[in-house]
Amino acid sequence: MALLDEAIEAHGGLARWNQLRRFTLHFSIAGALLSRLGRADRRKDLIAEGSIHQPSVRFSGLMDADTFGSFQPDVVTIENLDGETIRSWRNPSLRHAEATADLLEDEMQLIFFCGFSIWNYVATPFVLSRPDVAVEELAPWSEGAQSWRRLRAAFPPQLTAYAPEQVFYFDESGLQQRTDHRLGDTSIAHFSWAHQSFCDIVVPTLRRSQVLNADGTVRTRPVLLDVEIFDAAFE
Questions:
Q1: Which of 74, 135, 144, 204 shows a CA-CA span of 20 to 30 A to 107?
Q2: Which among 78, 90, 87, 170 is positioned nearest to 124, based on CA atoms?
Q3: 3-class DSSP state for residue 42?
Q4: Mind listing the pLDDT tens digit of every residue in the chain (235 residues)?
Q5: β-pairing, 42-51 with 57-60?
């Protein structure tokens, strides 16, 4: 069985994934990327409600208590409790500044970044099976005493992702352990672990994003982003 097929089966299977339409996550985020946005660099007790098959996520708790933030690839909005739009940002994008400095400077950028991040967290590895995503298996990678298999994926422009090309790492069970990509001039590694099954879909409940040095080693400080998923539901 090809690596992508093994990974999809390990995370719940494509048949089950295609039965679903929506997800809900209860989670928190922390890290250096939030440093310009206050709240001691941490957002706790957040809710994300999203679409399974199209990038679309709505957040509560991410900003003020009386607002919601919504992400779609072509627009980011902040709404009040009555559903009225307070602010909107058409055709959003990251400005690819230094990853540890000015990447997220306001709430609109935070919604955009968290929106495509959370959607890709949930949709991987299933999103790699899309016909417009090109994948190829690379040579295995040694991580301590483990050997992780790798897939390089090229994403189409219409699919909002961290980068047009990313490398995904999977352990011997087919569970995702890491993703690498470039962000501007910076190389980033996203580690994932503590996998749990929710509604028959397996999700890593802990994720950490860190900068990679030029020699490929991980820079331990600062931690760019920590995501902890407390609960998840799929329907």
A1: 204
A2: 170
A3: strand
A4: 699 999 999 999 999 999 999 999 999 998 888 876 655 456 788 999 999 999 999 999 887 778 899 999 899 999 888 788 888 889 887 665 444 445 566 788 889 989 989 999 999 999 999 999 999 999 999 988 889 999 999 999 888 888 899 999 999 999 999 999 988 788 999 999 999 999 999 999 999 999 999 888 899 888 989 999 999 999 9
A5: antiparallel
In total, the chain counts a number of residues equal to: 235
Architecture of the domain made up of 3-234: Clam (2.50)
Residue ranges covered by each domain of the chain: 3-234
Name residue, tokens 């991040």.
Answer: 117
Three-state secondary structure call for residue 235 = coil
DSSP string for residues in 131-192: TTSEEEEEEEEEETTEEEEEEEEE--TTS--S-SEEEEEE-TTS-EEEEEEEETTEEEEEEE
Residue 140 phi/psi, 5-degree rounding, is -60, 160
Question: Is residue 97 classed exposed, middle or buried when 0-12, 13-18 and 19+ CB atoms within 10 A define those classes?
Answer: middle
3-class secondary-structure state, position 52: coil
Who's near 52: CB < 8 A, 6+ residues apart?
17, 20, 21, 22, 23, 122, 123, 234
